[in-house]
Amino acid sequence: MDSQDSHLKETRIDGELAYDGHFLKVTRDRIKLPDGKETQREFIRHPGAVVILPLLPDGRVLLERQFRYPNDRVFIEFPAGKIDPGEEALATAKRELEEETGYTAKEWNFVCTIHNAIAYSDEHLDIFLARDLTKGEAKLDEGEFLELFSATVPELLEMVRTGQITDVKTIIGSFWLEKYAAGTWTPG
User: Fold this and answer.
1) Between the CA of residue 177 and those of 6, 98, 129, what are the distances in Å?
2) Has domain 49-182 been given CATH number 3.90.79.10?
3) Start-end of CATH 3.90.79.10 domains in the chain
4) Using CA atoms, how far apart are residues 106 and 103, in angstroms rounded to an integer?
5) Which residues are catalytic?
6) pTM of model > 0.70
7) What is the pLDDT along the chain (188 residues), one digit of tens a residue?
């Protein structure tokens, strides 16, 4: 943290693991606020994930439709997945693209890192652009069900504008692809 931000810093006094799930862990910490008062913070510990922006040779973008239980509906999303312990983010991206879609990519570029739920989780998502795709066979995890489709970048942006796409990682990735297609942003 930058020293000029020290007047905003909250300091952990102690804490406990409030819930230890298979995938998520909930921590409850007692903290000291910048004004010296004490309070609690509860937040989700998450191992991190990757998001893939798969650009097909014709310029279309590969997308998924997947049911998400907490919201009881099907969402349109970019391929994504959790980073396994000890796994590099790029290796996760390559694995998830192939498992979920069957595609492999020859060109990979890191785009950016986003923090999608900063008030209640330490989750981060590393976004990668995948190009020069080759079709193969998907290897979905047991219990994973999704369908693939493709769209142009303008069609993707229209789905964002009309509310058909509400998933934050997909919205951010869509805006990033718009800048990439226009030549105003380049991946790392």
Assistant:
1) 36, 21, 9
2) yes
3) 49-182
4) 10
5) 142
6) yes
7) 677 898 999 999 999 999 999 888 999 999 999 999 999 999 999 999 999 999 999 999 999 999 999 999 999 999 999 999 999 999 999 999 999 999 999 999 999 999 999 999 999 999 999 999 999 999 888 888 999 999 999 999 999 999 999 999 999 999 999 999 999 999 87
